[in-house]
Amino acid sequence: NAGVTQTPKFQVLKTGQSMTLQCAQDMNHEYMSWYRQDPGMGLRLIHYSVGAGITDQGEVPNGYNVSRSTTEDFPLRLLSAAPSQTSVYFCASRSPRPLAGGRDNEQFFGPGTRLTVL
Amino acid sequence: KNQVEQSPQSLIILEGKNCTLQCNYTVSPFSNLRWYKQDTGRGPVSLTIMTFSENTKSNGRYTATLDADTKQSSLHITASQLSDSASYICVVRAGDSSYKLIFGSGTRLLVRP
């Protein structure tokens, strides 16, 4: 299993440009999420999906769109990039099925995309 | 407000020494607490997850403790190695139906030879 993969690893954009960050997982996980990580702050949830065709907003959704046409893929689109979107973006996935004793299944993170908006 | 605070922000120790990282949270209701290790340039990787009823959980040289009464957790690293240099992130899941995860800002650990 490749786990959670993200492309590109690095990207530089100019203000106003649009782009799509790709995320794929091969673990057949229903739940997928996008986070951003900024210096001195914890990871913040941008958007998430509980299954193909179902998406919802997280804590910081403005300026981002998502779609989930398949279980495997969960792309994140920046509509019109702004310098405030300079960050490291992580995609994550997990199975919603609890483990024995009601434990959460583990959440797996991708390697991240480092985005700079000039 | 649901918050997770970690201390110290950064820490430097010599190889072979032990260290303890702290996590205080105000998340309510509480479901579980996780510790992640994040190497530079990589995504977080889970070390431990503890529910309300668990006080201690070990994963090799990593031992996490949880005091749900005082809402504190610690991560103890024994006999540190150079490969332990990373950021350690404390994450609390809220105990409602949202599966909301609240992330601490992490402790950056540097192990020197």
Keywords:
heterodimer, A: 118 residues, mainly beta, seven-stranded mixed beta sheet, four-stranded antiparallel beta sheet, 11 strands, globular, B: 113 residues, six-stranded mixed beta sheet, five-stranded antiparallel beta sheet, 58% strand
Describe this structure in words.
The complex is a heterodimer of chains A (118) and B (113). Chain A has strands at 4-7, 10-13, 19-25, 31-37, 44-51, 54-57, 64-66, 76-78, 87-94, 108-109, 113-117. With 118 residues, chain A is an all-beta fold. The relative contact order of chain A is 0.32. With 113 residues, chain B is mainly β. Chain B contains no helices and 11 strands. Chain B has strands at 4-7, 10-14, 19-25, 30-38, 45-51, 56-59, 62-67, 72-77, 86-94, 101-103, 107-112. Chain B is globular and about 45 Å long. The model of chain B has no long low-confidence stretch (mean pLDDT 93). Chain A binds chain B through residues 4, 31, 40-45, 90, 92, 101-104, 106-107, 109-112, and chain B through 4, 31-32, 41-46, 49, 51, 89, 91, 93, 99-106.
In short:
Chain A is mainly beta.
Which structural class do you get from the secondary structure elements of chain B? mainly beta
Helix tally of chain B equals 0
Topology of chain B as a string of helices (H) and strands (E):
EEEEEEEEEEE
Structural class of chain A: mainly beta
Which oligomerization state do the chains in this entry correspond to? heterodimer
Strand content range of chain A: over 45%
Q: Name the chain pair whose interface involves the most residues.
A: A-B, 20 and 22 residues
**What gross morphology of chain B would you assign?**
globular
**Gyration radius over CA of chain A:** 14 Å
Count of DSSP helices of chain A?
0
**Elements of chain A, N to C (H/E):** EEEEEEEEEEE
Proportion of helical residues of chain A: under 10%
Specify the biggest β-sheet of chain B.
6 strands, mixed
Please give the largest β-sheet of chain A.
7 strands, mixed
Q: Averaging pLDDT over every residue of chain A, what do you get?
A: 92
